[in-house]
Amino acid sequence: MKKWKELTENPVPPSRRSNDQGTLGRKIRLTANFFPVEIKNPRKNLYHYDVEFKETFKGKPEPVSLPKKKRMLIFEKMKESYPKIFNKAVIGFDREKNAYSVGSIPDIPKKGKVFEVNVTEEGSKPKKFLVAMKMVNHEDLSTLYKVLQSTGPREVPLNILQMLEVLFHQSPTLKFEKVGRNSFYSMCGEFAPATDIGGGKEAMVGFFESLRPIGWKKDCILLNIDVSHAAFYKVQSVLDFMVDNLGFNEYDFLNGLNSHKQAKLKKELKNMKVQVTHTHFPRTYRVQNVSQMGPDRQVFPLDRKDGKGEVNCSVQKYFREQYNCQLRYPKLNCLKVGPEKRNIYLPIECCKIAKGQKVNKKLSDKETAQFIRGTAKKPSERLHAIQQMVRQQSFHTDPILKGLEFSISDQPVPLDGRILPAPMLLMDKEFMPDRGVWDPRNHTFFAAANLEVWAVANYAASFIKQDKLRRFLGLLQNMGRERGMGIRPPVLVRDFQYPNPEKDLRDIKQKHANVQLIVVVLPRRGDYYPRVKKVGDREVKVVTQCVQEGNVDKCAPPTVGNILLKINAKLGGTNNVLGVNSRPIVFNTPVMIMGADVNHPRAHDDSTPSLAAVLASVDRYACKYVTEVRHQHHRQEMIQDLKDMTKNLLKAFYRTTRRKPERIVMYRDGVSESQFLEVLSFELRAMRQACTELEAGYEPGMTFIVVQKRHHTRLFCSERDGTGRAGNIPPGTTVDKDITHPTERDFYLCSHQGIQGTSRPTHYHVLWDDNELTMDQLETMTYAMCHLYSRCTRSVSIPTPAYYAHLVAFRAKVHIKELCDSENTSLASGEQEIPSDADMTNAAKIDFNNEISTKLYFV
């Protein structure tokens, strides 16, 4: 067994990039959506200025909290107001507190300078802001240039890349709607028309732009540009939005909203921006609440004209007298807008949805389907759109890039990739997948489970009658026997006219103590799924299989086949394993393959905890897994209890195999590049501590690989090499040079067959490797692990343990749904008591006191 490499207090990923590239597989000519950026003059200095905004309150300047758009507006107004200082300056602002310039700004002294800026916005009174700028430091562009020229170990200066990226983004930020750090959208459909997806929402087309620390040539870095899509709220009246999105009608408008609809509207509109339509100055406000009364009864304090204090005035009266506005719906609830401490009420009929608002809430299933249908592009179409966007940006005329003396090519990077050979798979006999897909109909499962005691609860009894249900169950049993499963008739098949999962599943378990599986037929509507899963997983500790009523009605063999894949895996069976000669080299000795992921709450939820899931294989084929789940601090990415979780998983491995793993391979999902060193210093250290605390001197070789799907690298091939109707790159396509990190070990692998749109390869970054695996071994192992996913008969886009970790974390979210449901309540607004830590632990944690943790209950 190899000894661990030294893990210092501040570990740095080993620089192993040099000559370690894969050689397996046949070559394929590819094009990547990266565009070379030539540095023509490296003798440039980049200066960093700290920017602080203040506003005068009672004659005293005070720091002020401003939205990013407002900060950029004030910054640009400052540049206009002081032309002698800024006219010749090549400067970019990150909309927060950092400005970067090419060369120093001579009129800003070392001690800094304060600029007075008057801003008038949307008809409001002019406001005076103070903008303080002070030089913090400067960087020499030649530092980056030397790194690109070097062939030995070197460290990429990420601070210089950050400066350059802000400068690159300055022009599109002023022209387009910026979303996140790197995406830009045209609200007027400059790139492509918006697609209506229903519910008062539309899919907008934009572009993604990011500089990458990649030396394609020695005097170049690369600019990653991609088509991006996002859902935005349509600019329409709030009344129309209520009809489109919430199903409200004229009766609601005439009579006002009941408490249920009032809460529903508040949930949808809270924190959204609306624009008034009753004045020539269309001011924009942020919605805080929905009032209980309409304009006819909603009052607010108004200064009397005779100067004798305040008087309560109704919103209806104020709008009639102040704006000559006769309201059509005086009983329809008002919107409370603006700062919480001010009493600003607006009639809903005088408001429209402000433009440029991205949808942060979860789309409905119908909206999601429309979004995908409207935005999916074939690879050839996507590449053409990307090249068109590059031409539209006219980089050669951008004053910032002229000041930098950068030249950007309008041609994407060509490169060579490789198509890895698919692994042989084994069911009752060995076979090779055909372009990532295989047909199980002529095979039996590698290890088929027996189903002797099971029950069926029909929650869709009004639609699925007994004859339809019996037909479906008959097909399920017959196809299961064809796959090698021994399936006896269910011990219970019952219609439930008034479903109550909490009672029903307990009753079934009480009457049939040895029940192995409970199948639940779900109706189209209702919240039964999370309730069934919570009771089954946590209380009665029986695996459940939910089936939609539509699938029972259609009774299609392919659907039933997919359900059997899940059932066999949940009962402890194994659908398929890797063929004898296709098993990775790490399988030659006892190895534990791990997966980890953290599920975070949605945007605007600032209190629901994050959920960490870690699982590990406990068999020689890496097909059976045990799970560990914990809740942790809100949006905390590092897995806080990883040491204890790893200990439990190692114990489970030993209990099952009677051996200790000599190697551990971790596939860690969901970590961004900025967190790599933190992952090494915290999570890898925690895993090592788990080993040594279990047994002194126990040092299994560890390979730690980060799995990234959220990136914008796309690979395109010729029509001749493409697969499927879309013509995507073939499964097994891998790239580990030209567009990868210049010093660290990473590679791109597309392990699945793209069916719709353009395939996204997965990016793998090898943070640590005690096992001293070659790139060929790392790539083939990763590709092989994408063929063991129990829910389908095709290779998937990420390795199975990482995929399973994602499913486990999502299931934990289902388990805590009743305690903190960010979809239906707002913990941040104090409307629901935040659950105790003990309650959260009980709801989220599935440990070895629950035997279901050793089953694939989550598939």
Automatic annotation (TrEMBL):
One of its GO terms (molecular function) is RNA binding. Residues 1-23 are annotated as: Disordered. Residues 237-355 form the PAZ domain. It comes from the Eukaryota. SUPFAM superfamilies: PAZ domain (SSF101690), Ribonuclease H-like (SSF53098). SMART domains: DUF1785, PAZ, Piwi. PROSITE patterns: PAZ, PIWI. Residues 517-817 form the Piwi domain. This is Protein argonaute-2. One of its GO terms (biological process) is piRNA processing. Pfam families: ArgoL1 (PF08699), ArgoMid (PF16487), ArgoN (PF16486), PAZ (PF02170), Piwi (PF02171). Belongs to the argonaute family.
